[in-house]
Amino acid sequence: MSRPHCPRCSRPLDHCLCALIPRLSSRTRVLILQHPSEVRHALNTARLAALGLNNAELRVGEVFEDLPALLAQPGYRACLLFPGEQAQPLPQFARQLDGLPALLIVPDGTWRKARKLLHCNPLLATLPRVTLVDGLESRYRLRKAPMPGALSTIEAVVSALGVLEAPAQFDALLKPFEALIEGQIEAMGVETFRRNHQRG
Q: Which top EC class is given (predicted)?
């Protein structure tokens, strides 16, 4: 018999994170496009990010038929948070906004699944691509990053908003993420974590 889950944060009721999820306002609109394979992921940080931001939306799928309408929201300048040859550093894009808020499109999935989202939704390729600043390190201590600067979705959103809305900070979004990691370390046992995950 499966454990009862919270309908909001999708965590088991005895590990519900809702009390830690803030409700933060931002000028930037965040649109997270989540590959269906991520929905049942133990972390699902995209869901936590969408719940913690008033001006955010999480859409799940591979093909988004209404993407033209989602991107055509008046008063925003859209950009795609994804690396590539044509990608520009986010601070550079922020300087070009001329007072307009950004519409930040964030694909959520493994690198392979995120690339599939771009392939299945060619309209995304028409957007200016942006990347986070160099030198960022993930707080997700349970998994080795596949490449330098690789962050979880919620960390990427927090970092991006910190640039787009400086000097405002959005670190409060990370509280449920950090509680989730602590819970996983506790479940595996601190000794097991130290042996297998801590950097020597």
A: transferase
> Assign residue 89 a region: left if phi > 0, alpha if psi is -120 to 50, beta otherwise?
beta
Domains and CATH numbers, the chain: 23-196 (3.40.1280)
Q: Summarize the confidence of residues 139-163 as an average pLDDT.
A: 75
DSSP labels, 126-140: GSPEEEPPTT-----
Bridge-based pairing state of the strands 77-81 and 29-34: unpaired
Percent residues over pLDDT 70 in the chain: 85
- Of 130-134, 140-144, 161-165, give the lowest mean pLDDT range: 140-144
184 CB contacts (<8 Å, ≥6 apart)?
42, 142
